[in-house]
Design brief:
Layout (H helix, E strand, L loop, with lengths): L7 H11 L4 H8 L3 H8 L7 H11 L3 H5 L18 E2 L5 E6 L9 E7 L14 E8 L1 E6 L2 E6 L3 E5 L4 E4 L6 E8 L4
Antiparallel strand pairs: 1-2, 2-3, 3-9, 4-7, 4-9, 5-6, 5-8
Helix pairs in contact: 2-3
Length: about 180
């Protein structure tokens, strides 16, 4: 890894931010604590190989890819194929991040799929805003103490600084396309 002396924690932080993930979301996906990720990213401790592997699994990288010279794209991708979307969901909720490699994005977009009976779990809260449209199925949006039953072709627009959650209480798959700011949550 010759990132001009870039320490492993700083590199991990850069990868996480480039993927549009918050430290808390990486903690959920990796099974590590938020404080462990924070400490590693600040280079206060060097991660054990097993810990590094957990983080790299979330980022879709192998150890060899992490330590290899990074490829610097000449220009961000224009066309992103389905197999290049970055999966950040879990437990029956698929959240595929559309990412073109641009480091200074100001908007993030996802294709979300909720299997029957799944939920985002506890309420999510992060600064910014989100808009989305249900492509198929139905979902219950809990926002600001109220529940909203949405069906295909309906859209929503929310302040994500207010706790919210999504639940598919139906027997059919629900698919949503959404955009949010900032790019991390």
């Amino acid at each position: 890894m010759n990132n001009d002396g870039l320490a492993p924690g700083k590199r991990l932080s850069g990868i996480r931010q480039q993927l549009g993930l918050s430290q808390r979301r990486v903690a959920e996906l990796s099974g590590l604590t938020h404080s462990a990720i924070s400490t590693i990213e600040q280079d206060k401790v060097s991660p054990a190989i097993s810990t590094l592997q957990k983080l790299l699994k979330v980022y879709g990288l192998s150890l060899s890819e992490f330590f290899a010279e990074p490829e610097i794209p000449d220009e961000p991708q224009v066309v992103i194929n389905p197999d290049e979307l970055i999966e950040i969901g879990s437990q029956g909720v698929s959240m595929k991040l559309i990412h073109n490699g641009a480091p200074n994005r100001t908007l993030a977009m996802m294709i979300e799929t909720y299997q029957p009976g799944t939920t985002t779990g506890e309420r999510i809260k992060h600064q910014g805003e989100e808009i989305g449209t249900l492509l198929e199925g139905e979902v219950v949006l809990k926002f600001n103490g109220q529940s909203y039953h949405l069906v295909a072709q309906q859209s929503y627009a929310i302040n994500t600084g207010i706790p919210h959650s999504f639940s598919n209480t139906s027997a059919k798959v629900c698919r949503i396309i959404s955009a949010h700011t900032p790019t991390t949550f």
